[in-house]
Amino acid sequence: MMEAIAALSLQSSPWIGSERTGRKTGGFFRIPSGFSDERRVKTLKLGDSRWSRTAVGSRHLELKISSSYKKSGDNFNNSVDEALILKRKSEDVLPYLNGRCIYLVGMMGSGKTTVGKILSEVLGYSFFDSDKLVEQAVGIASIAQIFKEHSEAFFRDNESKVLRDLSSMHRLVVATGGGAVIRPINWKYMKQGITIWLDVPLDALARRIAAVGTDSRPLLHQGSGDPYKKAFVKLTTLSEQRGKAYTNADARVSLEYIAAQQGHGDVSALTPTAIAIEALMKIECFLIENAVVSNSSHLQE
Ligand SMILES: Nc1ncnc2c1ncn2[C@@H]1O[C@H](COP(=O)(O)OP(=O)(O)O)[C@@H](O)[C@H]1O
Ligand SMILES: O=C(O)C1=C[C@@H](OP(=O)(O)O)[C@@H](O)[C@H](O)C1
């Protein structure tokens, strides 16, 4: 398992600069949601100089970038602006992560791999896909084949082992399998790092999955008929079973929320980079809230 991780970490994780272009920008990259002035002041009062510097500094940066972002008239500039915001936001967050891993959770097709690779690249972390590590660990080339030759339970046991092994490591972004959230023990492992839920509407998930096919996703690769409808029905059932488990995550990145903030009617207009930026903002909020809570508990001692 550890050799598998070492070998995989040598693989590159491309994406930056290759995102699609062509979307309207609405300047949503202001102060992150739930990141009010009141909370900043509270943070300052608690006297952690590292946080006060970051909070104030990043706020100026966001406001500055936000206005230039809104002025951009063409797609190239929008894409460059997004890349710049991503880079700056990662620089804000990185020192306070202290090497903690980031675990992305969410339904199949929610973009854990796509967004995870962007985050790993920009943070200088290694990227791992837990499905790939399971394939390596059991010596079978695909998840579909693992389900076929063994069972879902066998796959889940190995998925837990992989998450257990990853939990002692640092500086990783991990794209988990969509079902990793159903076993409580997996949360114990993932909570060694920061868990981020990519919350994507079911119709968008079904569209993405119908576009690429269900060969690699055995839970969706059943029955006949229209690929979109089939995926939508199955994803609806899975989401009803798992919806609550995803809410265990430390932070939620809602594509509907980002789209509304950017003035898009549809989440399909969002670039993976925009989603990665929102993820970094949510990580920042989480880290600040945690710092406030731990400072408060020190003060009460
Ligand atoms: N923001 C996005 N917009 C459009 N398509 C996306 C986006 N993010 C991911 N995709 C596509 O959706 C599919 C599933 O993405 P992936 O990252 O593999 O999801 P997961 O790892 O959560 O299963 C891929 O074909 C990917 O290219
Ligand atoms: O939701 C699930 O139960 C699964 C999701 C898949 O991963 P992705 O979320 O990366 O597709 C993979 O682990 C397996 O097919 C089961």
Structure in a nutshell:
It catalyses: shikimate + ATP = 3-phosphoshikimate + ADP + H(+). It contains 13 helices and five strands.
Identify the notable features of this structure and list them briefly.
single chain, 301 residues, alpha/beta, Rossmann fold, 60% helix, 7% strand, binds adenosine-5'-diphosphate
As a whole number of angstroms, the C-alpha radius of gyration is: 20 Å
Tell me the distance between the termini: 42 Å
Strand percent estimate: 5-15%
Query: Which small molecules are bound?
Result: adenosine-5'-diphosphate, shikimate-3-phosphate
What is the CATH third-level topology name of one domain?
Answer: Rossmann fold
| Main sheet strand line-up | 2-3-1-4-5
Shape: globular
- Major sheet: 5 strands, parallel
| Secondary-structure class | alpha/beta
Number of helices: 13
CATH superfamily membership of one domain: P-loop containing nucleotide triphosphate hydrolases
Quaternary structure: single chain
The overall strand count is: 5
InterPro entries: P-loop_NTPase (IPR027417), Shikimate/glucono_kinase (IPR031322), Shikimate_kinase/TSH1 (IPR000623), Shikimate_kinase_CS (IPR023000)
EC number: 2.7.1.71
Catalytic activity: shikimate + ATP = 3-phosphoshikimate + ADP + H(+)
Enzyme class: transferase
Explain what this protein looks like in three dimensions:
This protein is of the alpha/beta class and 301 residues long. It has a domain at 2-8 and 98-300: P-loop containing nucleotide triphosphate hydrolases (Rossmann fold), CATH 3.40.50.300. It is built from 13 helices and 5 strands. The protein has helices spanning 2-9, 37-45, 49-71, 75-97, 112-123, 130-138, 143-149, 152-166, 184-190, 202-212, 227-246, 255-262, 272-300, and strands at residues 102-105, 126-129, 172-175, 194-199, 251-254. The protein has a 5-stranded parallel beta sheet. It is globular, with a radius of gyration of 20 Å. It starts with a helix and ends with a helix. Residues 6-72 have low confidence and may be disordered. Shikimate-3-phosphate binds next to loops. Shikimate-3-phosphate is lined by residues 108, 112, 131, 143, 177-179, 217-219. It is an enzyme of class 2 (transferase). Keywords: Amino-acid biosynthesis, Aromatic amino acid biosynthesis, ATP-binding, Chloroplast, Kinase, Magnesium, Metal-binding, Nucleotide-binding, Plastid, Transferase, Transit peptide. Pathway: Metabolic intermediate biosynthesis; chorismate biosynthesis; chorismate from D-erythrose 4-phosphate and phosphoenolpyruvate: step 5/7. Its main location: plastid. One of its GO terms (cellular component) is cytosol.
